Please model this.
Amino acid sequence: MIGERAQVVARVVRGGVVESVHRGHVVVLAPDGSVRAGYGDPDVTFFARSSLKLVQAVAMLRCGLDLDGELLALACASHSGEPDHLAGVRRILAGAGLDEADLQNTPALPLDTDAATAWVVAGNKPTPLTQNCSGKHSAMLATCVAAGWDRAGYRAPDHPLQRAIRATIAELTGDGDPLHVTVDGCGAPLFSCTPAGLARAFARIATAPVGTPEHRVAAAVRAHPWWLGGTGRFPTRLIEAVPGLVAKDGAEGVFAAALPDGSALAVKIADGSPRPLPPVVTGLLETLGVPGLGAVGRVAVLGHGEPVGEVEPALDAFRS
Model:
């Protein structure tokens, strides 16, 4: 159970008083893959949600997907739905001879508030195109075209594409065949893993040899972080601030990252809140020797619209 053995990983401080705490599970791996620090239960089974998109992209490249650069980063994205994101999804689809009518992901408005407002003001409704996983779904469809697989059933867990993704998750995480399979918010199959396994997968992607699918994914994410998230998004800002970093967030308080030397981390917040992720993740990176991330990880606690405190990582726990 995700709540069992979870420990305090962040404190919400208002006016010098701890108002709330967030509990979770954290793992930090050394470059050799050994566990440098574990807090809570690094081996708990959980759903990594969109943090697995980089692993899914590796599987798609292995199956014949022909994307690199910004469009490969978009295939890994939980994008904000800004105009260039939508244009990029259309480019992926057009390259496979498809269009947005082929998408089967759940309709939604853009994540970005300004983009969502502009979309609605223009008279539009929630669509699969504007949902944040449309980059992944367009890449899944393009993979099916490249491999000669049926497109209509690409979301079925027993589809060849999803079987390949499942096998790649098992391989890169080192967790073995996923114990649980369900449906993600976007409609695609979702496979379970562990925080330690998620960190191992990111370390393998971050250190992969040039020319491999893993390296192609890492290179795309490093070079095009805006396409992975969007304007002002934490993963985008973090990758921009840390040379060589590979990172991705996921719904329900999940985050994973890896440095070029193979150091890696994974975080799962037990209550599902994304609020503590920036200070917790940047605090962990600072323990790995990455300096100057205070502004990137700061989450202010507001009183009448003004900062009166902030969310702080419980670094004493990580160092114990």
